């Protein structure tokens, strides 16, 4: 596969294409990170809001307890992850810790639905994959993390504070 890829890349038209668009690669990466972050967390906010509002209703709490820590604690942890961590992820604040919490939340959801049919597991697995991807690639340039990095650490040079301000 690698050799085949190298042969294709020697085609002059593709080389010209790569040279033309190489300045946009960083922006395309950052746009992809932004789209992934906002779409994965934005949809999760709706799930988290519903869970969070259960605490303010007059009805008894209804939620699974897959870890055996109690319904209230399970609902509180899921609400925190799906509402507050998702909101942080949308704006790109504490991106990697928020993505880690959301990934753990989805791993627990996947564990809780392990005995159910595949369609019930599919959505949790999809969210888990998205949050792991955000955890690995980070927030990108268009995030609150990038804006705060330089202000908190005094970073003025590219990458000196680990935020990759290029």
Could you please describe the fold and organization of this structure?
It is a single chain. The protein has 166 residues and is mostly helical. The chain has one domain (29-153). Helices cover 70% and strands 0% of the residues. It has helices at 2-9, 12-21, 25-53, 71-91, 95-112, 118-137, 144-153. Helix 4 crosses helix 5 and helix 5 packs antiparallel against helix 6 (118-137).
The whole-number mean of residue pLDDT values reads 81
The percentage of residues in β strands lies in: under 5%
- What is the number of domains? 1
Largest sheet: none
Radius of gyration: 20 Å
Reading the helices and strands in chain order gives HHHHHHH
User: Tell me, what's the shape?
Assistant: elongated
How many angstroms does the end-to-end distance come to?
Answer: 32 Å
- The structural class is mainly alpha
* DSSP, total strands: 0
Helix content: 55-70%
Determine the number of helices (DSSP H or I, runs of at least 4 residues). 7
Unreliable spans: 1-9, 157-162
